[in-house]
Design brief:
The protein is about 55% helix and about 5% strand. About 50% of the residues are buried. It is flat. The chain has 37 helices and 22 strands. With about 1250 residues, it is an alpha+beta fold. Helix 25 runs antiparallel to helix 33, helix 29 crosses helix 30 and helix 34 packs antiparallel against helix 35.
Length: about 1250
């Protein structure tokens, strides 16, 4: 290595004489001399730091935990303004942490920075206590829940804000340095003290939590009772005591000298590397420039330890490449001082690399901070809406955080005393889990915490009791698991994070590493706020209160918790990838360096990944057990939002298209001679999905007055014409149903058959006995749940808005929780009816049993329409109102049969795959153990997949078609996965009509970029170049959509000929074409263009010029391909039955969670089947595996189509008419084609990866 000569200061002579008397990490005492181990540092100094941290935390949270209450009660700010001010103040604290870290690392050092900012902290608390005592609490005794304070002058408010932001400055500048300063008291070059340093971080976090516990309980109680001055003076006294104790330990502390402004060093590296961007890098890092000795002194880095060169970020290495003519002050003497803007030592370059490598890890911790933030906000709000009384004791919701603190203390003991020894014994390493592994474990536990919180919220909503102002009867003690899990995750995540950033940060940026931890929490607060805002913007529209409204009983906070669990799971995957990529810092001559701490990459991450897989399996089993044990009515259907109606408020149901299971062809309601509304027929706004489903929702003439029982006359038709009679009779014979909707609830009727009562939606147009009769009188029953207002308990936690007692009548009213009808056919007295006008009141009518009193359908007959409505109070809660529809006979989901089928298929496929893996591993092991001569001999003697090495990557037949189908398969698979995930989260439910289909179309359009990229990347891999990619891209964009449009156009012409509402208008058809051409096609071409710029996959072996002859087989290989589709079909067919029933029999499908599980298992099984079949083909020397791998899993589409025909024959046997049959078969064909492309793509891509991996693992040429 190129070096610059330098010498150590004579101050280290003591170290040279006795290297065990002084610290080895370069620390000094308060006089600047080398630090002696027996006289400085260790647990004596560390204990002072821990006590200081506990007292300072108590002081800080004594202000922060109830600041929002202070602003609302004392300063008379509204909830939104107070919450906003607290958020700004909290964010400022963490911003000042960066200021403190910069000053500490650059100029002042950690001791001086801690002392100065703690003094500012004390001054701010004293000023806050004085201003509160002297100016703000007027009149005396104000500031509690009952007595508000008088208005304050601008000077008084300015004095308050000056003091409170001085508190923010002092605490923010002090916090990131005190943790690092405490860690400085332990020599990491000494193995014993290095372990003590690890323990210090755990105790440091425990001290922080204990201080927070005291302030949240005792100080919080006094401040909540209005004793603000006492609380603030107690905080000031605690901070003063902390400062005095800190200063008392001055002579015992170990110090590290600041090394100067890090921004200059970073800029020097960037400038030097940019100047040498054309310079060729040496082959070895040993040839790069470095200063001689263990330390870098003077202007280079002011005494920081040398960092060894690491691979990666090669561009920056150019800053350390020596150019003798330009890099030194004396161009003739290389031992002279170098120009720092042209040449930087390796340590300076590696310092910048360390920061760049830390940033991805840091970014992945922000999502965890979002989860952690919920403990101070949504957890408290959730607890406020639960039963807070245990015995005779009332539990404040905010005090539940005590379980989090108890969990932290418990798990710190558990980790240090139990888990670490066990893991150390298993891993044969005294340190146990590495920091990155513990952070990953923390993310896994955080996922479990969010699942627990969401499950509690589901049951909380289920137990909302109408007799206690809609509070839930579920005890607040059910929140204990989620608090305990958050506490456990903190021990693994935040303690591991503190250790990791302190360990991996260069000597000159130790405080900056601690500041990253604080800014992660700060950004977590901001991201949480942004996420809540986005969720509310999406979900709270019109009359919908959104997921997290003021009254949680009207919202869906459980879905927000589950969304956080999914985001954390995705973050865990990214974190694992970043952790595998991460390269630890390497210090020269370190006895117990970070490279030992983090070990090699494989050994470091393997136990964590094993734990990750085990945890994921446990979580899945936990969710499945919940689904199996919980009754169906424990789940309410999302997608519809509560609207409260006042008494006598007029409401009107809407009418949807007439539908029939006999024909599956919908028609508009007003195609029959029904009474039109007074103001004319008006169509409701419909989304694209509703139009494609054939829905046409119109207004109706029916009018109700809430909670008023009435009977009305509607109208009398003109004498029926022959055409109208024919149409009415035809609709009656074809069993057409009238579908009505009130407050987004479909109307239901009950049918009794053989003593069993069935429920179904809609009511018939008429019925046939001796002749045909029309339904002309409707007896409606509307179920109401009386809503009596909301009472929200004060929570007053940091960063939260405080909601006071709401006026009882503000939200009082009625919720519609049921809509039922009894259809009747009544022959009215035309003479009496002719004297009435629309909405004239009539007497209630009993449905006649005698046919001579029913209204027949006859030519020239006039039909009078009447209706009556009754309102019935119900105990059904609004979140459960859809249960009646989901539990209807015929739509009841067979939970146990589904789960049993999934488990059988899963284990069957798993066993086959395990056997297969053992076979491949044995082949590879045997082959690689042979020497070259034996390998050559085995190539001549053995048969099997090893003999097709020269043909296995030969271009398949019809490569363009293969690339097109794979590209479209990627697009369909992506659309399916995203749609089902969103549906499982509740964005797309049966209550949101048409949203599922609309979402599928939108996702399909925007995933065109993925299809183009994958298709063209495969094309380049097969062809070896991008030639012809434009034609392939256009084919990908047009293949599946073209077939679908062709089939839909033929079906649409048939529906047009039948005058059905299922026929798409020309404008809608043009809209679909425009969306495809202007969104999907350009994105597909863009994806193809990006693929041409990406590197194509390199084959590991060369392809022979002459193709190898494939041995003859007794049975065609395609028989095995077709048979392979039965296994994926086994995972799908039960859900397929319910999906077909929901489409063709009008039943509701809502178990999207099960569908998501089925989709995951289907993907796994498709991959396994294709890989196994590919391997079997290669073993019999059949190298034409490309298409067989695709159709091995894609053949499931054949069984899906055959099952659809079976469903048509046996389940839709009453389906009449060629148009109806063609409609069914056309849609089934499109579905089967989409399934073939999706499953075939999954199998092919996994098989391609397998074959590439297989032939890359052996030494074959």
């Amino acid at each position: 290595m190129v070096t610059k000569s330098s010498s150590f200061s004579t101050a280290r002579s003591g170290y040279k004489a006795d290297q065990y008397e002084y610290t080895l990490d370069g620390s000094v005492d308060f006089r600047g001399r080398p630090a002696a181990k027996g006289k400085t540092g260790g647990w004596v100094a560390g204990s002072l730091v821990l006590v200081n941290q506990g007292l300072a935390t108590l002081a800080f949270f004594g202000v922060g935990v109830n600041l929002v209450l202070f602003l609302t009660r004392v300063l008379q700010q509204n909830n939104a303004e107070a919450a906003n001010n607290v958020s700004k103040w909290t964010g400022t604290v963490y911003i000042f942490s960066l200021v403190g870290a910069f000053l500490s690392d650059s100029y002042w050092g950690r001791y001086k920075t801690c002392a100065i900012f703690q003094a500012m902290f004390v001054i701010g608390l004293v000023l806050l206590s004085l201003s509160t005592h002297m100016f703000l609490l007027k009149p005396t005794g104000c500031g509690d829940e009952d007595l508000n304070c008088a208005p304050h002058s601008n000077i008084e408010l300015g004095f308050f804000y000056l003091s409170v932001y001085l508190v923010a400055l002092g605490n923010g500048g002090y916090q990131p340095n005190i943790a690092t300063f405490g860690a400085d008291q332990f020599d990491e070059e000494d193995s014993v003290e290095a372990r003590s340093k690890i323990s210090f971080f755990s105790y440091f976090y425990l001290a922080l939590n204990l201080g927070s516990l005291f302030s949240n309980t005792f100080l919080g109680y006094f401040e909540d009772e209005g004793m603000w001055a006492l609380g603030f003076w107690a905080s000031a006294g605690s901070a003063m005591t902390a400062l005095i104790l800190f200063l008392c330990g001055t002579t015992r502390y170990r110090h590290f000298k600041p090394i100067g402004n890090p921004f200059f060093r970073v800029c020097q590296v960037i400038v030097a590397a940019s100047r040498k961007w054309r310079v060729r890098l040496p082959s070895s890092g040993e040839d790069l420039y470095e200063v001689e000795g263990k330390k870098i002194l003077d202007s280079d880095a002011n005494g920081s330890r040398k960092i060894l060169h690491t691979e990666g970020f090669e561009f920056l290495d150019r800053a350390a490449v020596v150019d003798p003519m330009n890099d030194f002050m004396d161009k003739k003497n290389e031992s002279s001082a170098h120009n720092p803007w042209r040449l930087c030592p390796v340590t300076q370059v590696e310092e910048f690399k360390c920061v760049l490598r830390l940033l991805p890890i840091w970014l992945t911790t922000i999502i965890y901070s979002v989860v952690f933030t919920q403990m101070a906000s949504l957890f408290v709000e959730q607890g406020a809406a639960m039963n807070n009384v245990v015995g005779s004791f009332h539990i404040p919701p905010a005090s539940m955080s005590a379980f989090d603190i108890a969990s932290v203390a418990l798990f710190i003991f558990f980790y240090r005393r139990l888990l670490t020894p066990l893991v150390s014994r298993w891993m044969k390493d005294s340190k146990g889990l590495t920091e990155l592994q513990r952070m990953g474990v923390g993310l896994v536990i955080a996922i479990t915490a969010m699942i627990s919180a969401g499950t509690v919220e589901v049951y909380r909503l289920k137990n909302v009791c109408s007799s206690c102002t809609d509070d839930s009867s579920l005890s607040i003690l059910w929140q204990i698991p989620q608090y305990m899990l958050i506490g456990a995750s903190e021990v693994f995540m935040y303690v591991g994070q503190l250790e990791f950033f302190n360990d991996q940060a260069p000597d000159g940026l130790k405080s900056f590493g601690s500041a990253l931890c604080m800014t992660s929490i700060s950004l977590g607060n901001y991201v949480s706020s942004l996420l809540v805002t986005i969720i509310m913007e999406i979900t709270a529209k019109g009359d919908r209160p959104g997921w997290i409204p003021v009254n949680l009983n009207r919202g869906h906070m459980d879905r927000f918790y589950f969304l956080l669990a999914i985001l954390t799971a995705a973050d865990l995957v990214v974190f694992a990838a970043c952790a595998r990529w991460y390269k630890s810092i390497k210090l020269e001559g370190s006895v117990f360096s970070a490279s030992v701490v983090l070990k090699s990459l494989a050994n470091s991450m393997e136990p964590f990944l094993i734990f990750l897989r085990l945890s994921c399996f446990i979580n899945l089993a936990f969710l499945i057990s919940l689904l199996k044990l919980a009754p169906v009515d424990a789940f309410y259907l999302p997608g519809s939002y509560m609207r409260t109606y006042s008494k006598e408020e007029m409401i009107s149901p809407k009418v949807n298209s007439l539908t029939s299971f006999e024909t599956e062809i919908p028609f508009t309601y007003y195609s029959l001679p029904y009474c039109p509304p007074e103001g004319g027929i008006k169509k409701s706004a419909e989304n694209l999905g509703e139009l494609l489903m054939g829905d046409q929702i119109d207004n109706s003439p029916y009018q109700f007055h809430v909670n008023v029982n009435e009977s009305f006359y509607l109208c009398t038709t003109k004498p029926l014409t022959a055409e109208e009679v024919k149409l009415l009779k035809q609709r009656t014979h074809e069993l057409y149903q009238v579908n009505m909707i009130l407050d987004n609830l479909p109307v239901r009727r009950f049918i009794e058959h053989n003593g069993v009562t069935f429920a179904t939606t809609g009511f018939p147009v008429g019925f046939t006995m001796t002749e045909d009769y029309i339904i002309n009188h409707l007896k409606f029953k509307v179920l109401l749940h009386e809503y009596e207002g909301v009472k929200v308990i004060d929570t007053g936690d940091e960063g939260m808005a405080v909601v006071t007692q709401t006026e009882k009548n503000t939200l009082s009213g009625y919720e519609i929780v049921g809509f039922e009808v009894i259809p009747c056919s009544v022959k009215h007295d035309l003479a009496a009816m002719s004297k009435l006008k629309m909405y004239d009141k009539t007497k209630p009518i009993d449905c006649p049993v005698e046919l001579d009193k029913s209204q027949p359908i006859r030519e020239k007959e006039q039909i009078s329409f009447t209706y009556e409505v009754s309102f019935v109070k119900s105990d059904i809660r609004w979140p459960s109102r859809w249960d009646a529809y989901l539990k209807m006979d015929g739509a009841k989901v067979h939970w146990y049969s589904i789960m049993n089928s999934l488990v059988v298929i899963f284990f069957l496929a798993g066993i086959v795959f395990v056997i297969f893996l053992r076979t491949v591993r044995r082949d590879l092991t045997r082959y690689e153990e042979l020497d070259q001569e034996s390998q050559a001999q085995m190539n001549e003697e053995l048969s099997g997949w090893k003999l097709v090495v020269g043909d296995v990557f030969r271009e398949p037949t019809s490569p363009k078609l293969l690339c097109v189908m794979v590209g479209d398969g990627v697009q369909i698979t992506g659309m399916t996965v995203v749609t089902i995930v969103f549906a499982a989260l509740g964005f797309m439910s049966p209550a949101s009509r048409g949203m599922l289909l609309t979402g599928m179309i939108m996702f399909y359009l925007f995933l065109g970029i993925a299809s183009g990229y994958v298709g063209i990347r495969l094309w380049r891999t097969i062809k070896g170049g991008p030639e012809g990619w434009r034609s392939v891209s256009w084919s990908i964009a047009c293949f599946f959509p073209g077939i679908a449009f062709l089939v839909l156009t033929v079906l649409n012409f048939m529906l047009w000929g039948s005058n059905s509402t299922g026929a798409l208008p020309f404008s809608t058809f043009f809209l679909l074409l425009s969306l495809w051409f202007f969104i999907s096609v350009p994105l597909t071409l863009l994806g193809g263009f990006l693929a041409t710029r990406a590197e194509h996959i390199q084959f590991p072996v060369r392809t022979n010029q002459i193709a190898r002859e494939i041995p003859a087989r007794k049975f065609p290989s395609w028989l095995l391909v077709l048979g392979a589709g039965t296994l994926p079909f086994g995972t799908l067919f039960i859900e397929l039955f319910f999906i077909l029933s929901s489409i063709w029999l009008g039943r509701f499908y809502y178990v999207f969670g099960f569908l998501l599980v089925v989709l995951v298992l289907l993907i796994v099984v498709c991959a396994e089947v294709s890989v196994i079949l590919t391997y079997m083909n290669l073993c019999v020397e059949d190298w034409q595996w490309w298409w067989k791998a695709f159709f091995a899993s894609g053949s499931v589409a054949l069984y899906v189509f055959l099952y659809s025909i079976n469903y048509l024959v046996f389940q839709l046997s009453s389906l009449s008419g060629s148009v109806s049959a063609m409609l069914y078969l056309g849609y089934s064909l499109i579905m089967a084609l989409a399934i073939m492309l999706s499953t075939g793509t999954i199998g092919f891509l996994v098989s391609l990866y397998f074959v590439h991996y297989l032939f890359s693992s052996v030494k074959i040429d």
